[in-house]
Amino acid sequence: MSASQDTVYQATCTAPVNIAVVKYWGKRDTSLILPTNSSLSVTLSQDHLRSLTTARCITSSTSTSTSPRDRLWLNGDEEDINEGGRTARCLAEMRSLRQKIEADNSSLPKLSSHPLHIASENNFPTAAGLASSASGLSALIATLARLYDLEAHGVSQSDLSRIARQGSGSACRSMFGGYVAWEQGERADGADSVAVEVAPASHWPDLHALILVVSDKKKGTPSTAGMQRTVATSALLQHRIKHVVPERMDRISRAIRERDFDQFALETMADSNQFHAVCLDTVPPIFYLNDVSRAVIQLVTELNRASGRAVAAYTYDAGPNAVLYVQEKDVKLVLDVVLQYFPQSAASFPDPFATGVAPTGSKERV
Ligand code: ADP
Ligand code: DP6
Ligand code: CO
User: Fold this and answer.
1) Neighbours of 236 (CB within 10 A)
2) Is pLDDT above 90 for 60?
3) Residue 353: per-residue pLDDT
4) Is the pLDDT score of 363 beyond 70?
5) pTM summary value
6) 24 lines ligand 2 (CB under 6 A)
7) SS3 of 307, please?
8) Side-chain half-sphere CA neighbours of 220 within 13 A
9) Tens digits of per-residue pLDDT, 261-308?
10) Which of 212, 213, 136, 203 is nearest to 175 (CA)?
């Protein structure tokens, strides 16, 4: 038979990053990815930081002789899909949903029995502490859901978020827009460890996220390995889990509901500081912040002190790059101050005021 009888099915999706204001750091189940504490994040606009993923499935009546396998390219380079690994698990979960639908609808093409070719690209530094695993795994699941037409057959966003969680914990939050909590849950099967919307983006539209790219290098300690080491060695993590995060989740959820920026900023910066303190309490210690990150912390602290109110809230994921949450009325002031103290940033991004609809991102290199 000729190759012309092959049918190509293809889907493309983008997914945004989310930047946590209460950080997830620690797993109680490394296989299902169940966290040791709840977390809360803001999903940024896809106009700025996003993963773009295309998945392709070729059904061929002649393709039975070889043993084709799933393949994945990230930013142009092929990545291994390790057997039993997290990506493989996500693909298996998605296939199994498609298989059930095919079993009930014999007229549908049998996509589940053919290999997938997936290509993804991030338009921002990968593995540098800007949540590429969140947007990346979320884009992967969204793309496969579209390819397999899952939502038309009753698979919910929440079901997809649960699968994305098994690819990278933070990815479960990127399946929703706006302000999103990931409830840690209690069950061993993870059924109640789910992302839920605290408020839509439209609830607090004048909140902006400014991304200060300190370094685009791949981090030395990937998040997965770093948090495992913390769970195994840090007493401070146990204190954080039991005595800090539960109350902070309540307070920051209330601050979001009431659009109380002062309280939001206070909790955000305190949580970032404690997360990095927990990294330092890990044996051997993990250093994600560098001198420039710390200079940005000092700058924001001084700006807030001199202003007599919270003008900006800094937060750092597992990397040196800063995210500043700022209200719309203060975006120009904060960017002016950043450019004054880090003048080289203006050269890389000549239009630093290009912010879109909030919550949104604007990139500065410092
Ligand atoms: P980050 O701080 O960027 O989230 P992590 O250490 O958590 O860093 O995860 C980085 C890893 O996430 C990458 O090495 C890669 O395996 C995966 N990843 C990143 N982007 C994508 C993508 N677009 N598609 C699939 N996997 C991705
Ligand atoms: C510091 O979700 O990247 O960004 O579940 O092992 O893939 P895995 O880790 P990941 O960890 C994110 C850690 C963080 C905080 C956060 O996003 O909540
Ligand atoms: Co990550």
Assistant:
1) 17
2) no
3) 32
4) no
5) 0.94
6) yes
7) helix
8) 7
9) 999 999 999 999 999 999 999 999 999 999 999 999 999 999 999 999
10) 136
Task: Round to whole Å and give the CA distance between 245 and 283.
Answer: 22
- Ligand nearest to C-alpha 132: 1
Rounded CA-CA distance 61/23 in Å is 48
Q: What are the residues whose beta carbons fall under 8 Å from the beta carbon of 226, sequence distance 6 or more?
A: 25, 279, 282, 286, 318
Decide whether any atom of ligand 2 lies within 6 Å of the 267 Cβ: no
Mutate which of 24, 118, 122, 133 to test ligand 1's pocket (most atoms within 8 Å of Cβ)? 133
Q: How many CB atoms lie within 10 A of CB 92?
A: 13
Range list of β-strands (E), 184-343: 195-199, 207-213, 312-316, 322-327
- Tokens encoding 186: 């209690």
Closest residue by Cα to atom 6, ligand 2, is 224
Residues in contact with 72: Cβ distance below 8 Å, sequence separation at least 6, in sequence order: 78, 79, 81, 87, 118, 119, 120
* pLDDT above 50 for 21: yes
pLDDT digits (tens, 9 = 90+) for 155-164: 999 999 999 9
Q: Look-up: residue for tokens 């991102």?
A: 361
For residue 86, which atom of ligand 2 is closest to its CA? 7
Task: Please write the tens of the pLDDT for every residue from 199-224.
Answer: 999 999 999 999 999 999 999 999 99
Cα(41) to ligand 3 centroid in Å equals 13
Atom 25 (ligand 1) nearest CA: 136
Is residue 190 classed as helix, strand or coil in its secondary structure? coil
Ligand 2 centroid to residue 90 C-alpha, Å: 17
Bin 257: left if φ > 0, else alpha if -120 < ψ < 50, else beta: alpha
